[in-house]
Amino acid sequence: MNNLFQTDHSRVLLYLDENAGWLKVLTTQADEIPVLEKILYEKENTIENKVAEKEHFKNLLHQQHEQMKELNNELDKQQQRLTVDAAGESLYDIESLCSQDILRNRIKDVEQRYIDLKCSFMRFLSDVI
């Protein structure tokens, strides 16, 4: 901890809770991706004529899954920083506090892209089945 900052201890605890919730959401969404990929493979016969679209969704699902895994790793690191901060109860690492806002924005972006991708994927499936 190079740059220490004094803030309310409850703020750090709130960030810990916030991150724990995000970890659950991102893990749940990341766990859905292999299920969606399986659906894509199971419907192979019905989407033979849509090879380009199928490949497009395979790539998007893979990219989304990788981004979610990366974000989960970053959340784990953030949780570790905040846990160390919470143990101190008086001075907190400015990096962990500032990175929380950045992380929050990234998570919102990844979640929105996942929701959009899942909706597009379901529309695609409904059109070909």
Number of strands: 2
**Class per helix and strand makeup:** mainly alpha
Q: Average the pLDDT over all residues and give the rounded result.
A: 84
- Which strand order spans the largest sheet, edge to edge or round the barrel? 1-2
Structural domain tally: 1
Largest sheet: number of strands, sense, barrel closure: 2 strands, antiparallel
Described by the principal axes of the CA atoms, the overall outline is: rod-shaped
Q: What integer value in Å does the Rg equal? A: 19 Å
Portion of residues in beta strands equals: under 5%
Topology:
Layout: E1 4-6, H1 9-42, H2 51-88, E2 91-93, H3 94-128
Antiparallel strand pairs: 1-2
Helix pairs in contact: 1-2, 1-3, 2-3
Structural summary, described in words:
- By secondary structure, the protein is mainly α.
- The protein has one domain.
- The chain is built from three helices and two strands, in the order βααβα.
- The chain has a two-stranded antiparallel ribbon.
- The chain is rod-shaped, with a radius of gyration of 19 Å.
- The mean pLDDT is 84.
